[in-house]
Amino acid sequence: MSKTDQARDVMLKAHKGQTRRGGEPYSVHPIDVVETLEFLGVKDENIICSGYLHDVLEDTKYGSDMIKSNFGKSVLDIVNELTFPPDVSDEDYWKKCGAMSSDAKWVKMADIISNLGTVDEKSSHFVTKRVKALKIIVKGLNLPIQN
Question: Which among 38, 44, 58, 92 is annotated as catalytic?
């Protein structure tokens, strides 16, 4: 089994029984994040694994030591960058997004795209906070944006 397949399996088990606000299984979100990464052309195994695992530290009992032993320090470092305390201020959220490594920025960009694309209603604040973060991340990745 590949490392990315293992990450997918761990995510499915870790989020088992959890649902999103719209009622679908929570696992739909990390799968969508990885599909978005792949659509964007990301092939790096550590980034893809981090896409699957990006919410496990916040939302499950799967711990840092388990990520490190099963997927390595690089994946753990990326997942740690993507893990926010529940009471983070908007300013700290944006600052942390801007300071992320480029690997973490790819996952965060795909995460935001996935979250904004879900069908449940989002508050204006939710959308504004994430769109601003997305702008910070894209600027930090120095992507060749065409007009």
Answer: 58
